[in-house]
Specification:
Structural class: alpha/beta
Oligomer: single chain
Strand content: 15-25%
Number of helices: 20
Length: 615
């Protein structure tokens, strides 16, 4: 047998074949008095093993070194096995560590050599460490999603997107596309208002160009219409169908013409067998915190969606318990964190538990905060939230619509004939004395609660405008009972002498808070820069009234980006108000009449009476 030193390890040759003997085999030769090579010294003390994961300009780097007295040498990986000895300073040492776990980890991650590894391999290494409860690598990897495009740099102009992405959105879009090349899923966890929907639309266009699809979007009922609207506006090459309501498609073959199917969580639960007859290339859960309960039917159903890739979209990946994160990651990468029972045993529901999860979560999630990308954002971001009524709301609205049409036939109709329709769109409880749960009875109110909870999560404040006194009661009663956030109100009944004190208390309050305002009673003259979120809960005919109201927060002294949300139901009187406001703004006419109903408003009234909501 012939012996040689190659790459600072001993190798042997027999019949022309090269072998990497183990340290034990080499020891046997030494004990028998036949050391492989006489010119080197053989130590029985052994050397240390240093395994590390690091970030570099070229990517993620895995290194496994033998170390003695500060001198390191990389250990070769041969056929998935680590060579367990090394020659340092002309002295041979064996490795003082059992390598079984390390070799098992490398095998599961398909790592066959030291050096650059993919993010997919990194995630599998972290999964092995987590599920086996061992620490094999010193991990100093840092994922900087704000600057790291993680591979191919895709230009949005090449994918038929009718929008210009902010740089952070460009980075996020690239991050998602490159991540899905190597992993089964990922999490888009940007804070609210940063355009998560736009990044997903760009992602679908990218995969559409690669002839991959179709795509399934699962979202709260309140966001179904918004998804269709945004796709139609910014990605007209995507053929979109909203699968919801009593008249929805029941034969999966009828879904084949569509590139994107948008549906609700409740509909997925009911229609999963039919939906799973389609092999979706990508399934997206919007507001993915809806599956945070690992034992819920909703979570278990979503995890059974027949898709190749998955994206969880949420501005609040962690709400109440550490298992929220388990549920979301189990959707995008099944089995990554083991089963929920073992997860609960080894991850505590506290800061220390979060630190243990951080390496895995940072590899699977891109998350930017408003303060991190503020330089890229305009000081004010307007977000339209078109909504679709529930079936129950739609039927009641249709009845009210018939009554309004009958009233209109008796004379020249003005905006007053639409008042009951506007009140119903604000909330059914405004016209119905037999009130149930306000959350269950209104899709718009559900979306409002979702927004408020996200704002509270960020420890920020919000101003909410509504015209109706009874809506103030609905708001405050529900929030005090179910959300517990500090709130104040100013409407026509609030004494003028008290209004400034209320604003001062709101601005100075240390923590999240909500201020409900009537746009006529508190839409001018007040400086409310303590809030950087504004929700127009029901739209006004007069855009100048709305603009003045928004200016309570978006004004001199405001130090944060202001987000202005406008909630309205599609195919209702609110859509006409929305179109009217946009039209008036386009022609820079700020003195728009209110509710008197002059002749030039006649067409808006007629249009409102001819719109029937989808449900």
């Amino acid at each position: 047998m012939e012996w040689k030193i190659e790459d600072d390890v001993l190798i042997s040759f027999k019949d022309g074949n090269k072998f990497y003997p183990s340290a034990q085999e080499i020891f046997s030769h030494v004990k028998e008095g036949n050391p492989p090579l006489s010119q080197i010294r053989f130590s029985s003390l052994g050397c240390n093993l240093v395994a590390s994961l690091q970030s570099s300009e070229n990517g993620l780097v895995l290194s496994i070194d033998a170390e003695k007295r500060g001198i390191k040498k990389p250990l070769p990986i041969v056929n998935g096995k680590l060579v367990d000895h090394v020659i340092l300073c002309n002295t041979w040492y064996h490795v003082n560590k059992n390598l079984d776990d390390l070799e098992g980890c490398l095998a599961e991650a398909a790592v066959y050599e030291q050096g650059i590894i993919s993010r997919s391999q990194y995630v599998k290494i972290k999964q092995y460490e987590f599920t086996h409860q061992v620490k094999l690598f010193d991990d100093s990897v840092k994922f900087d999603s704000n600057s790291q495009k993680n591979g191919l740099d895709i230009n949005p102009s090449e994918i038929s997107l009718r929008a210009t992405l902010f740089e952070y959105q460009h980075v996020g879009f690239n991050w998602i596309c490159n991540t899905l090349e190597g992993l089964s899923g990922c999490v888009l966890g940007d804070e609210m208002g940063l355009g998560k929907t736009m990044q997903i639309i760009a992602t679908m266009l990218f995969f559409q160009q690669k002839n991959k699809g179709p795509f399934l979007i699962v979202a709260p009922i309140s966001l179904l219409a918004n998804w269709k609207r945004e796709c139609n506006k910014f990605a007209p090459t995507l053929n979109v169908y909203v699968h919801h309501g009593s008249n929805r498609i029941s034969n999966y073959k009828c879904l084949e013409p569509y590139d994107v199917v948008v549906t609700s969580y409740s509909t997925v639960i009911n229609d999963l067998p039919m939906l799973n007859m389609v092999r979706w290339y990508l399934a997206v859960l919007d507001e993915a915190q809806n599956i945070k309960n690992p034992d819920s039917i909703r979570k278990k159903t979503c995890c059974r969606i027949n898709s190749e890739k998955c994206i969880a979209v949420t501005g609040t990946p962690f709400e109440n318990h550490i298992t929220d994160i388990w549920s979301i990651l189990d959707f995008v990468y099944p089995g990554l964190l083991g089963n929920v029972e073992s997860f609960r045993k080894c991850i505590s529901d506290d800061v220390e538990g979060g630190k243990k999860l951080e390496p895995i979560l940072s590899a699977m999630m891109v998350r930017r905060r408003v303060k991190e990308v503020a330089d890229e954002l305009p000081p004010r971001i307007d977000i339209e939230q078109p909504l679709q009524m529930s079936e129950k709301e739609g039927k009641t609205y249709s009845t009210l619509l018939s009554e309004a049409r009958g009233e209109a036939e008796s004379g020249n109709p003005g905006f007053g004939v639409l008042q009951k329709l506007r009140m119903f769109c604000t909330h059914p409880h405004l016209i119905d004395d037999e009130c149930g749960n306000p959350f269950d009875d209104s899709v718009k109110f559900q979306r409002f609660c979702e927004l408020v909870e996200e704002i509270i999560e960020k420890r920020e404040k919000v101003i909410v405008f509504t015209s109706y006194k009874k809506m103030f009661d609905v708001f405050t009663s529900y929030l005090n009972k179910n959300i517990g956030v500090k709130n104040w109100s100013i409407n026509g009944e609030t004494e003028i002498s008290l209004r400034q004190k209320i604003v001062d208390d709101f601005n100075q309050y240390d923590g999240s808070a909500v201020l409900f305002l009537n746009p006529r009673a508190a839409g001018t003259g007040l400086n409310i820069t303590g809030a950087n979120h504004v929700i127009h809960y029901n739209l006004e005919w007069n855009p100048s009234l709305e603009d003045q109201a928004s200016a309570r927060a978006y004004r001199r002294g405001q130090e944060k980006t202001v987000f202005v949300y406008r909630l309205y139901y599609q195919n209702t009187v609110e859509q006409i108000i929305q179109e009217r406001i946009n039209r008036k703004r386009q022609i820079a006419e700020n003195a728009v009449i209110g509710t008197e109903g002059f002749d030039n408003d006649y067409q808006d009234v007629i249009d409102a009476l001819n719109l029937v909501p989808n449900f």
